[in-house]
Structure formats: C-alpha cells, structure tokens
Amino acid sequence: MSEQRAQTSIPATRPVERRRGWWGWFDPRGRRLGGWAFALNRLTGLGLVAYLYLHLGILSLLARGPDAWDTFVDIALNPLVLALDVVLIFGMLFHGLNGLRVGLVGYGLVASRQAALFVGLMVIGAIVLVVATLRVFA
Amino acid sequence: MSVQPRPEERSGGGSVGFLGQVVSGAALLVLLTLHMIAQHFVVPEGLRDYADVIDWLRSPVVVVLELAFLAFVTWHALLGLRAIIFDYGFSASTERWITRVLVVIGLATVVYGTVLLYAVVAAA
C-alpha cells in the first residue's frame, strides 16, 4: 500500500513525513513554502476540530439556563481567554484562506501562480487578524 | 486493495473526498464569516448574554443557518481528520472501520447539536 500511495503522491516532503509521523510535518529538510503551508494547515485543522467539540460543550451551558451561560460570558471576557480567541481566529483565517488556495489549485485554477496566491491570501488574513484583534480587545 | 491518496495531492481534483472538502470548505467560508460577524463582531461585548441568545434564535433563518453551519463544519472536520489518519497507512479494512467510526461520531455530533439547539429554541 505504501508503494501504491507513493506513486500517487507528489510532494517531495512526503517520505520524510511518513517516516517520522506527525513530527515530520515540521521537518525542515527539503521543505518549501507549500510544505510549511501543508503542515500548518493540518495543525490548524486539528486545533479547529478540537475547538469544535469544546465549543459544543460550552454551548450546552445554554441548556442549563441564564445563570450558567452568563457566568461563562463573564469568564470569556477575561483577557487571557480573549488572547486565546485571537489564536483561534488566526487558526480559522489560515486554515480557511489556505484551504481556498488548495481548492483552487486542486481544480487547476491559478495553479501556476499558487505561491503568489498564497502570499496574497496571507496578507489579507494578516490584515483581518489585526482588525479582529483590535475588535476583540476593544 | 483500494488506494486513497491524500485529497490535497489529487491535482485533478477527482477525489470525492477532496470534492467534499472543497464544497464544505466553501460553504464554511460563508457560514463561518456570517457566524463570527453575527455572534461576535457586531455584539457590543463580543458575546451575547443569555437573553440576547434566546432573542436571536427566535428567527427561523438563524436556526437554519446555524444547523447548516453545524452540518458543514462537522462534515469538513471529520473528513479532514480521516485524511490525516489515513496518511499513516492502514489496511483497507481498518480504513473502512475508521470511516464507520467517524460517520457515527459525525452523526452523533449533528444530532447532539440539533437537540441542543432545539432545547434552547424551545426555551425562547
């Protein structure tokens, strides 16, 4: 199966990743910008999956009534929690915008300009992150 | 033995899994943006208090959008998780079991979220 997978695999970083498990995502050997984007896309994806279930758990407080929810809202306005919100927004922006690039390139759109597309989307993401951070701490 | 290359590596975009990720991802770009703006960025303190949440959920459009958001985000999250797990090279039968487990988790997630939303809406 590994050989068959290798025949359909493209990135040169893939064998290193397979040898080293998920730590291989961050192995700098032979890794280009796309490789780092791939690694960060997966890391943010895993973080967002974890957050999805944390979020559902937190929303269950709504079913317990106003006291439970409003107590949580007070906690959520703590600056430390707000800082974690900024990390969350970064994860959503990176994963969403890089995913947009992967989708476009995967269907052959702007494949020849994907590095420029990546940089452009990351600049947009950085601007939105700054605005969102200012809004979070306003 | 079936071979499931990483969706991201399918340059032709022919993978059903990759198509599912692209479609759900595109939907999430819209739904998550709406969710973040409506639930956080236009709210004075960034989070609605209980009374405000109940009032917000009185709109059927909001309920439908939140349910669509839940379904798409669950699909996208678990399909992505499946792709990561499959990269570590399991047998075809193990991959089928992993898929079944993830389908059950996904259905349970959507059912739980829907029941929770119904409970909150019922309180409205």
What are the secondary-structure elements of chain B, in order, as H or E? HHHH
Shape of chain A: elongated
Largest sheet of chain B: none
Averaging pLDDT over every residue of chain B, what do you get? 86
Runs of chain B with pLDDT <50, length 5+? 1-14
Backbone shape of chain B: elongated
Multimerization status: heterodimer
Radius of gyration of chain B: 18 Å
CATH topology of chain B: 3 helical TM bundles of succinate and fumarate reductases
Q: Which class do the helix and strand fractions of chain B yield?
A: mainly alpha
Helix and strand content put the structural class of chain A at mainly alpha
How many DSSP E strands of chain A? 0
Query: At the first level of CATH, what is the class of chain B?
Result: Mainly Alpha
H/E element order of chain A: HHHHHH
Integer-rounded radius of gyration of chain A: 19 Å
Count the beta strands of chain B.
Answer: 0
